[in-house]
Design a protein that fits this description.
The complex is a heterodimer of chains A (about 260) and B (about 300).
Chain A: H1 8-27, H2 30-51, H3 57-86, H4 89-94, H5 100-129, H6 136-149, H7 151-161, H8 169-183, H9 195-201, H10 205-216, H11 225-249
Helix pairs in contact in A: 1-5, 2-3, 2-5, 3-5, 3-6, 3-7, 3-8, 3-10, 5-6, 6-10, 7-11, 10-11
Chain B: E1 6-15, E2 18-28, E3 33-37, H1 44-51, E4 59-64, H2 76-79, E5 82-85, H3 97-105, H4 114-120, H5 136-148, E6 154-158, H6 166-181, E7 185-189, H7 193-199, E8 202-207, E9 210-215, H8 217-222, E10 227-232, H9 237-242, E11 246-251, E12 256-261, H10 264-274, E13 279-284, H11 288-298
Parallel strand pairs in B: 3-7, 3-8, 5-6, 6-7
Antiparallel strand pairs in B: 1-2, 1-4, 8-9, 10-12, 10-13, 11-12
Classes of the chains: A mainly alpha (about 260), B alpha/beta (about 300).
Chain lengths: ~260, ~300
């Protein structure tokens, strides 16, 4: 056991190959990639640019970007993992000598790239069409915060993917995704919601992701940023724990 | 052939209160193809999942290359020695055959070179196709290539030729025989008795969670009391039924008869003496199917 199974360069090659294959898989599934890209952009153009006549273009850029990056995280990990599980593919990987980390790495990287693409598309819409003007440091901060902020949603997706059946996964994930975005204040500003719902928002990861984004343009509700970060980290830890449990239990429910 | 690669000792397993496997023991060696046969629900899949560490063991002991199956998911040094073709595994459809081979090759420190794989498993003609568009035979060839590309010591095959046509199946068998010649221990579960007969050196017959036979296909068949005589004979039915050891006689209009007898040599001697015009004679050993049926049904009366 002293000799590692793969040398360092072989391990790097493995992680690269896993990421390449997961990206190719995503890229060749237009039914997945198009809605992921189109919905945030369409919502932004409709509500952020046309209906509000550009008044809230800045605020809604953050809203729909946060909403947008949650999508691939939840669906690539949720629905796609559920499918791979149902196909017996996950079992084959589990008993192969590949470290499971390489599989997770591949999926995470493709989620992040897709999230980045969504962010860039929205930035282009905001800058070119809605006339949003931000400092370079703000654009960069916003992109960085949103990318890092997808991690807990990847982990939530993974937990769901390891739990739900392939058939029910897409619908169930929508049932979680859309309310999470709405109640987290990513569709409508929280002030417009009843106060009970405003209280509820404080425990949702989507709210804290949104707040981190709004803080970049100075439109957050004023919690110290470490509170938002702490909640997201806490959620990540919970989902890591749940996903690990589900992963270990995988073999037990296959007969 | 000195050390068994897989050792099963006193293995029992149950789902809740329903017992599935009872006190199984066997030792499996390199260079042999072992078929686990049994009706549906006999415990084949459970046994396989226990060996792969997909189910946690309850009673008894399994060692795979000297280690517990629970190590398979932890130690690549162990799982890297195993090749597995799972029954229901379908490949993610968006990747091509070549991409899938590249991905799996990255799991091993010294995989077979791609070119060797492509030639040996006949993948050239559909290398650039997406996995979703493969035929049953092509898909199974790819899955076998994935199972063998790490040059394992043990190969697990769970119903590998389901959905293949005759020609594809023959080719597939040849690939498995090649793997045996290289010294692999090959464990096969199958519904096709013909497949077990053609491939296996050894048959583990599983019934109600017990191994009721652990022997070669030939021994299994010759161990059977019944053999069949087919011929054309003008002898009347009641005479045929009086012959030594006869348990059943079937007859057809053009004087064709099939006699099942437990003392086939004595039976033949008398038959030829009594009927000088007898023709079209064949004597057949029991097929593996008959052996299977006879063994699994006689065991029921215990």
């Amino acid at each position: 056991m002293n000799n590692p199974w793969l040398s360092l360069s072989q391990r790097i090659a493995l992680y690269k190959t896993e990421a390449e294959m997961d990206l190719k898989t995503l890229w060749r599934t237009p039914g997945f990639i198009l809605p992921c890209l189109a919905f945030p952009v369409l919502f932004y153009l409709l509500f952020g640019v046309m209906l509000s006549k550009g008044q809230h273009a800045e605020y809604l850029l953050v809203s729909y970007a946060a909403f947008g990056v949650m999508g691939p995280a939840l669906f690539n990990f949720g629905a796609n993992v559920a499918t791979e599980r149902a196909q017996g593919w996950l079992t084959l990987k589990q008993i192969s000598p590949a470290p499971i980390g390489s599989w997770l790495f591949g999926k995470t990287l493709s989620c992040l790239l897709l999230a980045l693409l969504i962010i860039l598309l929205l930035f282009v819409c905001a800058g070119a069409i809605a006339g949003v003007r931000l400092y370079t440091s703000q654009w960069l901060q916003l992109a960085g915060v949103l990318l890092l902020g997808t991690i807990p949603f990847c982990l939530l997706g993974l937990t769901l993917g390891l739990t739900l059946s392939a058939k029910s996964a897409p619908a169930t994930i929508n049932l979680i995704y859309l309310p999470l975005a709405f109640l987290g204040g990513l569709w409508l500003p929280l002030q417009l919601l009843p106060s009970a719902l405003q209280q509820l928002a404080l425990v949702l990861p989507s709210y804290h992701l949104g707040q981190l984004g709004y803080a970049v343009i100075g439109k957050d509700r004023g919690e110290p940023f470490w509170v938002n970060v702490a909640v997201l980290v806490l959620y990540s830890l919970i989902f890591i724990w749940l996903a690990t449990r589900r992963f270990r239990a995988q073999s037990q429910d296959r007969r | 052939m000195t050390e068994p690669l897989i050792r099963i000792r006193q293995l029992s397993h149950s789902y809740g209160k329903a017992p599935v496997l009872h006190q199984l023991s066997a030792e499996l060696y390199g260079g042999e193809i072992i078929a686990v046969l049994g009706a549906n629900g006999a415990g084949k899949t459970t046994l396989l999942q226990l060996m792969l560490g997909l189910l946690s063991q309850q009673q008894g002991e399994i060692t795979i290359l000297g280690q517990a199956p629970s190590q398979i998911r932890r130690a690549p040094q162990l799982s890297g020695q195993l090749g597995v073709m799972l029954q229901q595994a379908s490949l993610p459809g968006q990747l091509t055959v070549l991409e899938q081979l590249r991905l799996f090759s990255a799991y091993y420190p010294a995989p077979l070179p791609l070119q060797t794989l492509i030639e040996r498993f006949g993948l050239q003609s559909f290398l650039q196709q997406r996995c979703s568009s493969l035929s049953g035979g092509q898909r199974q060839s790819l899955l076998l290539a994935l199972a063998l590309l790490g040059q394992p010591k043990i190969l697990f095959l769970d119903e590998p030729t389901v959905g293949m046509d005759v020609e594809a199946r023959q080719r597939f068998w040849q690939l498995i025989r090649t793997a045996r010649a290289e010294g692999l221990c090959i464990l096969l579960t199958t519904h096709y008795l013909e497949e077990a007969d053609a491939l296996a050196d050894r048959i583990l017959l599983l019934k109600d969670g017990h191994f009721i036979a652990d022997t070669s296909p030939t021994a299994l068949k010759t161990g059977l009391s019944q053999r069949q005589i087919r011929c054309r004979s003008s002898l009347p039915l009641n005479v045929l039924q009086q012959l030594p050891g006869v348990s059943a006689v079937q007859h057809w209009p053009n004087q064709q008869v099939q006699i099942s007898s437990s003392q086939v040599e004595d039976c033949l001697r008398q038959l030829l003496q009594q009927d000088a015009l007898l023709c079209d004679l064949t004597v057949s050993a029991a097929s593996l199917e008959q052996a299977f049926l006879q063994l699994t049904t006689t065991a029921e009366t215990h």
